[in-house]
Write a structure and sequence with these properties.
Elements lengths: L13 H10 L6 E4 H10 L5 E7 L12 E7 L10 E7 L3 H12 L4 E7 L3 H6 L5 E6 L3 H5 L2 E9 L2 E6 L3
Parallel strand pairs: 4-5, 4-6
Antiparallel strand pairs: 1-8, 2-8, 3-6, 3-7
């Protein structure tokens, strides 16, 4: 196997690069997080990329053994003990996964004032800007420090190897 080039890019950019290189008839694969690939495929539903292999992420230091996209809210409460109209801060990386999830909650009578940030999602809660948040949880250290707890696990993430067919 000849590895003529290795390109290092941010995990959320891997599917884009794979897709564009496939468009140029390159033989290409990429490795990224399953959460990031899922978001890309929801944003780009006509993508010609696909998952070639899932590699289990198993880290005993992680709260759920792997990165997990979660609905987080005030410690000691639960979603059904909060008002039905909520301010929610969402990591921009997970806009489409979050939208699908929140659509389900909206069928249960919840409404959301949504805003998206590139980072510091959990801090929006501690600063009083949001009632709940959707973000990735790894060790759980920051959510404990900021008075949050996991209300629901939305998406477990493993590693994925992606590729596809060139034109």
């Amino acid at each position: 196997m000849d590895l003529s080039e290795i390109l290092k890019v941010r995990g959320e950019d891997v599917p884009f690069w794979v897709e564009k290189l496939l468009d140029k008839d390159k033989n290409v694969i990429g490795i990224t997080g399953q959460d990031l690939y899922k978001e890309y495929s929801l944003r780009n539903y006509k993508t010609k990329t696909n998952v070639l292999e899932v590699i289990n992420w198993n880290d005993p230091k992680a709260m759920f053994t792997k990165p997990t996209l979660c609905l987080l809210g005030p410690k000691g409460k639960s979603l059904d003990r909060l008002p039905n109209n909520l301010r929610i801060c969402i990591s921009d990386k997970y806009k489409f996964i979050a939208k699908k999830y929140l659509n389900l909650l909206e069928t249960q009578g919840y409404t959301f004032e949504k805003f998206y940030v590139k980072g510091s999602v959990e801090e929006s809660f501690s600063m009083g800007l949001s009632d709940i948040v959707i973000d990735i949880v790894y060790t759980g250290k920051s959510i404990n420090q900021l008075g949050l707890e996991v209300y629901d696990k939305i998406f477990y993430s493993n590693f994925v190897i992606i590729g596809g067919r060139s034109r």
